[in-house]
Amino acid sequence: MTDLQPEASAQAADEAALLRKVRWKCRRGMRELDRIMERYLSDRWPQASATERDQFLSLLDVEDDKLFQWFMGYEPCTDERYSDIVHLVGGLPPESAN
After folding, report:
1. Alpha carbons 76 and 95: distance in angstroms, whole number
2. What is the pLDDT of residues 32-51, one digit of tens each?
3. Residue 62: exposure state from Cβ atoms within 10 A (0-12, 13-18, ≥19)
């Protein structure tokens, strides 16, 4: 019988380190984008599939002005690589005012 506790602990540490790196990369310097990205990390990232996470990570390589246009609804995302994740992230409910 093997002890899985150290392996689970290592996986949790790896996940926490990844989340810190992603959170840092989500810092865009635009309050609106920062809030949208943070909302995704808080609400969806923990249960997101590997595919969804990969899509989100690729979205972080898009220029800020393009992300702003998509998320604010000024321009539709017509790029098939990003359209699903843009719709998902942009469709998350806003933060509560509390």
Report:
1. 23
2. 999 999 999 999 999 999 99
3. middle
